Amino acid sequence: MDTQSKKDIYDQLQKEILLLQGIKPQSEGAATIKGLGPILSAFPNAVFPSAAIHEFIIDSREQAAASGGFIAGLLAALMQHSGIAMWISVSRQLFPSALKPFGLEPDRMIFADLKREKEVLWTMEEALKCDGLNAVIAEVQQISFKQSRRLQLAVEQSRVTGIILRNQTEKLSATASNARWKISPLPTVPEQGMPGLGFPRWQVELLKVRNGNPGSWQVEWAADEFYTLPIQKQVSALHAEQRKTEQRKTG
Amino acid sequence: MSDWIVIRRPELLNTRFVFATQDHGRKLITALSAETEKYGIRTGTTVADAKAIVADLEVFDDKPERAEKLLKAIGNWCIRFSPIVAVDLPDGLILDVSGCTHLWGDEQDYLREIHTRLRDKGYHIQLAMADTIGTAWALSHFAKHPTVMESGQQLHALLSLPAAALRLEAGTLQRLQKLGLNQISSFINMPRSVLRRRFGEELLLRLSQALGIEEESIIPIQVIPPYQERLPSLEPIRTAKGIEIAIQLLLEQLCKRLKEEGIGLRNARLTSYRIDGRIITTDIGTNRPSHHIHHLFKLFELKIQSIEPALGIDLFVMEATKVEPISPEQEVLWAGDLGLNNQGLTELLDRLTVKLGNDVIHRYLPAEHYWPERSLRIAASIHEKAASGWRSDRPRPTQLLRHPEPVEVTAPIPDYPPMLFRYKGNVHHIKKADGPERIEREWWLEHGEHRDYYQVEDEDGQRYWIFRSGHYQGEKGSRWFIHGYFA
Fold it and tell me: Most CB atoms within 10 A, among A119, B9, B301, B340?
């Protein structure tokens, strides 16, 4: 009984600290993202911080593709079939039609295809100030702490979700973003006895979370929603995959 | 003009009088009453000659420009019939009646109404309506009755009229008469080169104008005022702050008027006149008609840097070059909606377009094509809705290369992707694959090989979209390409 009440007190204190740090418990209407439960628990209050800047690290085109799919699924859950997002880039390769399988109507995405790299951050800041948008995604090469702080301030005003895709990962400068993600593709697992590819599967890494706990998960996009694989299954699946490849090698 | 004096002095009705003006020491008649006309006196006759014919002729002094003033007054009165009225000196008025006649029934009723109204006032007029100014002029001066020409019948209407109906100069007319070409029908079919050589360019121009081959414009007496505001400044303005204030003031004036008329501007131009004579123009455009001062100011604010005041600017002119009606209070209705109609969003897009250029903002809609490069089209406007739904039944990569890039493959087999492929120096062993999805070229658009697309996954779980161009052609013959990356 005593321990129970102690835990309650801890929780209460934790919430108060978060409140003092300016992280308010999300009001009703905050979008819950189906299937990402274990990942969301890494965030303060176990809620996806939608009025924040998220950073995605992109090392390769394969990761860019995986991040594109993951973000599309994320936005679809956040936007709930209404609302508009903007995608800012200089040399865009994102194929709009591919957003649809992840539940996002491609015509709800406005693309700003800029000519110069230095215009990206200005455009993003302007867009983040506009509460007519739900989310702004920008492909950024370099961003300083000061620039990211500006974006963060804009987001706090307008409650828009900001997503930065960082292409240059050699020297990652610190930023004021709320979370740093990395999405890498994983081998798919087709249904029992079926040929071909299974559902898209990714290694989702949360490298940094403000006031939260970083972690790594395996996530699948199955039947129009996310599915976070249980840890045990992840291991066994990986083993199964390895065993299969070994078998193939020997056989 | 003779009607005018009769209206003012009714006792002159049915009397013999003329207006005359001094010309080189003699008096020339400029206008005359119907009664005088019966004696064979015409305008241009000297008063002395006329007096010899009609002894009790009353002569009034004609003031210069009196006829013009009178025509203008009648023209202003005629604006009730059409907003575009022009004076055609010395004795005519031209009304652009497109879209006006139906208010009076039909065209005949319209003409009758004008005729009766002016006759009741005491003016004798001749009326005609035609497709072109030239033909209308000819018919009104030379046809017996008020006529409405049927559309496209200029040639037919002109044939029986005298050459003078073409508004030709006296010299040209005389030459035509000397050759016996009295009617338009007698020379209209002559080769143009012959007409040009004999009678000059003027005849051809007038003919073309009457037939509607050549455009002819009129200067309306009451110009429809453009949406324009001027702001002169006593002291030349040299600072950015000063320019800001000027823009703010001009927008306030302009937007007040736009608001009253229920319209918004789509394009606006600020012209700054510098004291050294240079003129700087600044243009902005919006995605939706707007008369929102704050928003428009924001758009100009982005461009203030490009206005170089140098020694100073002493005049600002703001003009709305394109306006469209605004559906009133639309903003209020949509205020809560996070959609494409959101005003904040359209204003953001305006700002981006002004700052970054016109071809920056894109929105895509599905196009009815299987060929991947053509499966999208750019939406024409921010509000355009997709005619057909987005398809998700066929796999499409999240990253699509702008152009397919060739890859080296080994051990290709028919109807199956190769064992491995090499792209940019990396070897990818294919572990799983889906496909093929054959996409034919649209032969009505272009020629070439079809593509057999495969969705493949390598040993690291990375997924690619590769295709073979054309049919399988043995070990060496097939060409393979990578076209995208799957999530």
Answer: B340
